[in-house]
Amino acid sequence: MTYETLTDAETRDLHALAGLMIPASATHGVPGADDDLIFADILKSLERDTADAKTALQQLVTLSGGAFSALTAERRGEVAARFKQEGGAPLFTLNRVVLLCYYRDDRVMRSLGQEPRSPFPKGHVVEQGDWSLLDPVRKRPPMWRRV
Predict the structure, then answer these.
(1) I need a surface site. Which of 39, 81, 96, 109 has the fewest CB within 10 A?
(2) Do residues 114 and 124 make contact, with C-beta atoms less than 8 angstroms apart?
(3) What is the reported pLDDT for 65?
């Protein structure tokens, strides 16, 4: 199956946006989502979500009044805050891809104290939480139609 690809301008805007979404942290010793390795994974992983990414990036260009990547850092922050409010489903899709790729990076996993490997077959130990937090959800009436 063949997927659309981003234009050079869209790629530059996504690179700038990814760096705002997850900036590098010297304190934690982790790269940002605009790191070359992570960003290459983001571009490669768009696949079926490229159309939504293009829609989101077009919204970003509209809000920016031009190329998002060409804005000053301060203006990017302002536009990104507005985009966060107005981006809708296409932005949600873009967020998902960026986060997925970011947390796949070995450097990020090590900073979280995790062994950089796939979760199976060994699995990962997850501490038990407070299951009573789900009580309000359990008490809700069903939201589906019975067949």
Answers:
(1) 81
(2) yes
(3) 97
